[in-house]
Fold this protein.
Amino acid sequence: MLKDIGVSWAIVGHSEHRKIFQQSDFDIGCKVKNSLDNGMNVILCVGECSIERLTGKTHKVTTDMLEAVTKWIRPEDWNRIVICYEPVWIHGVEGGKRVNPVDAQEACINIRDWVRRVVHPELGKQIRVIYGGEVNSEEAERFIR
């Protein structure tokens, strides 16, 4: 139905859906596959909660989330995916905190490196990895560098 009205992108794995609707990695994998199979592009959200952040598990959590859906993605479909680093602790469920641009950049670099090592070296250079958290007008420039 979404495709019929011109929607071409699906956001899958958003933190609020993972937490509030208790979507599992299996659920998210199915949604990614279904979206791709039906001609949609996918923005795949991955990110850690506050306790995971405080205990230094950001990289493990994000790569575990990616690993869980990799089996649902055909090699030729990776070019239709954008990976969005979306830390849970900055909004919605846990909200109210700000991410340092350097930390967001580091998380995105780690995600890109995982894609390069696990999926394909060239894809690691090409895939779009974005930051999906809150940014205000004063700090926006620091996030686009």
Q: What stands out?
A: DSSP finds seven helices and four strands in the chain.
